Structure formats: structure tokens, C-alpha cells
Amino acid sequence: MYYSTIKCDKERNSRIASSSESILLQDRLAGKHAYNIAILSNAKELGHFSSHLVNAITTLEDLIDLFRGEDFTGKKTTIPIAFLADEFGQVVEDYNIIKKSLSVKRTKEYINNKINCSREILSKHTSKDKSLLLRIIENLDNFNREFPEEYL
Asked: What is the pTM of this model?
């Protein structure tokens, strides 16, 4: 797993990939590890939940980094950057253009989809930790809905 992570990270940091490739890379770097950690922790029933939740969190973090200008230091594939490249044919660095772009909406929709997948899986779960996990999902969902308008 370590070597595949290094390989994916090198791939992610070497070029701007398409949005479909960036989604696959994100899952290979974050989602699959979250799934495997759940299994290793004897929580196999939460594997897919963990994968979706971690993909949502890491993509939201990438979106925040985009607004901070942290991912413009080179060629780096993140889902928000890939959506920007899809929309404009290049990675735009103008904050006002980014804020109004469809790429932000598409990224937030991707995050929302992952949140909803997590919520759906958790609805079938009977653990005593369910209420805490639901609270995490709801807080993430609220932040995603309000970002960037409420935080910039």
C-alpha cells in the first residue's frame, strides 16, 4: 500500500489530470486507505462510510486550499483544480473568477454526493457511535453548503 500511495502522490503532483482521473486519484490516495483502516480496526461495516467521508473531507480541504492559493505552486491534480482546467482549458488563478466558476459548484456537488453516500450507509448502521458520526456528517455538510460565501 505504501508504494502505491507514493506512486499516486507522484502522479498527482506531476500534472493536471482530467476531472475523472483526479477523482480516481483522490480515491486511491484517501478513500481506499480509509476503507482499509476501517477493516483493520474491525469495523468492516464502516469501510465504505469511511471511504466516502474521507474523500469528502479531503476534497473540501483541497477546495479551501484553492481559495488560499496554496495549490498554484506547480502542477498538482486536485478535484477543484481539475474542474477548473475542464472549465477554462487551464488553471485560472484569479480569485474572483474562481469564486464564480462552475468548478466550485461541481466540487461542492462532488463533496455533497460523498456526504450523502456516507449518510445513507450510516442510516443502516446500528452502532452506539452512530449519533456522533451523524453529527460529523451534518457539520461537514453545513460547512460545504456555506463555503466559500460565509468563510471568505
From this structure: 0.89
